What we know:
This protein has helices spanning 16-26, 39-45, 101-109, and strands at 9-12, 29-37, 51-58, 65-73, 93-97, 114-115, 120-122, 126-132, 138-144. It is an alpha+beta fold. The chain has two domains: 9-73, 2,3-Dihydroxybiphenyl 1,2-Dioxygenase, domain 1 (Roll), CATH 3.10.180; 93-144, 2,3-Dihydroxybiphenyl 1,2-Dioxygenase, domain 1. Strands 5, 6, 7, 8 and 9 form a five-stranded mixed β-sheet that branches. The protein is globular, with a radius of gyration of 16 Å. The relative contact order is 0.20.
Amino acid sequence: xxxxxxxxxxxxxxxxxxxxxxxxxxxxxxxxxxxxxxxxxxxxxxxxxxxxxxxxxxxxxxxxxxxxxxxxxxxxxxxxxxxxxxxxxxxxxxxxxxxxxxxxxxxxxxxxxxxxxxxxxxxxxxxxxxxxxxxxxxxxxxxxxx
Length: 146
């Protein structure tokens, strides 16, 4: 048994429009949107009465995808505080390589993003930082240095 590929990462959000705008600003493209409901999705999720809207975001190179999911029913629940720190168990961040980390952080701040720490340099290889976006999503940014 082998994995063929990683298809996407899914993030549950409360405000799907804000999340789409945030990731579009980051440079992702909206691949598509759809309402999802029915017995099959209930069975897959182990929930009853699932009704969601999803938005599939794609990286510019076409290789990475992020699914944003807004639950209408049942109501989404929070398993941790919205401002969970980087050492909290579970999925903590999604990393993107960007051309200009300073310009990217500035653009994302217009969409409510906040730096978790600060922009720091790792050796002569990368400048890195974490920003907190919609619903507390931590997005890691890396600018490769030549």
